[in-house]
Amino acid sequence: MKPYMDEKHTKIWMRSKFNELCKVDYVNNNLAESFNAWVRKIKDLHVVDLLDRIKVMIMAKFELRQRIARERFAGHKIIPVVMTRLHDKTRGLKMSLVRRNPYEAEVTALDREKREWKYVVHLERMTCSCRQWQITGVPCVHALFFITSLSGRTREIDQYVHDYYSVARFNATYVDNVPAIESKHQWDFVDPGFVLQPPVQGRAPGRPRKVRIRSSSEGSGLGPRKRKCRRCGGLGHIARNCKNAVDPAFGEDEHWVQKMQMGH
User: Residue ranges of the alpha helices (H) in the chain?
Assistant: First the structure.
């Protein structure tokens, strides 16, 4: 397996091999999963109606992000949620360091087996030998320990966070919203000179699938639906075929009391 991964996927199969340009360390497809969940209720629409609904949803999302930037990010250099996470990481750090100069230090951390792990942190270059700072764009715990040991202006963490997490970049991302257009019923009729017929497609038997096929690593999810017995409350059978002892706590006594009262 390793020779294949080294040959075919030298840059994406582990975080330590990631390129330092993109400033992200995700190894999942959460973005695609979030989009699928976002459009789950409308993906059965015709393609034109589907695209129009997605366009409206994107417009609303962009307007929400613009409003968030105006109301919550004013006066901040870095997005507040990023700074909150970094400040939380600075609490309870148990390390030691030796400075080489005001901007470079050797940070030592102990693992559970009391082994020493040493990392070289350089504040001016915004680098750590663990490479997490370079890949993510935010200081790692080794850099945070070094930064919090300083005093004065050099102690402020926001100056060591990459510009990708700045409020200015956030505003630039959502500055231009999707253009507003009229409904399809208001479009001008265009005669291309031919009739475009829909493609011939063979429809599979049965109801169309709406739930995606899970990979083997994700498990089977909730599994098949099991019927619940109205007599004993057990799963996997119905009351007509139930041979289990009746649990009074399930409500069987109340059921017969009601039937007797109705008979009288």
Answer: 2-8, 30-38, 47-72, 80-89, 132-136, 141-148, 167-173, 252-263
What confidence tens digit (pLDDT) does each residue in 79-101 have?
999 999 999 999 988 899 999 99
Q: Specify the residue for token string 């109705």.
A: 262
pLDDT one-digit tens code per residue, 6-17: 776 665 666 666
Residue 110: inside a domain: yes
Asked if 161 and 137 count as a contact pair (C-beta separation under 8 A), the reply is yes
Domain presence at residue 143:
yes
Q: Which residue has the higher pLDDT, 37 or 250?
A: 37
Q: Which two tokens stand for residue 44?
A: 């059965």
Residue 52 contacts residue 184 (beta carbons within 8 Å): yes
**53-85, pLDDT tens digit by residue?**
999 999 999 999 999 999 999 999 999 999 999
159 located within any domain = yes
Domain residues for the domain of 111 are 11-177
Give me the number of domains the chain comprises.
Answer: 1
- 186 found inside a domain: no
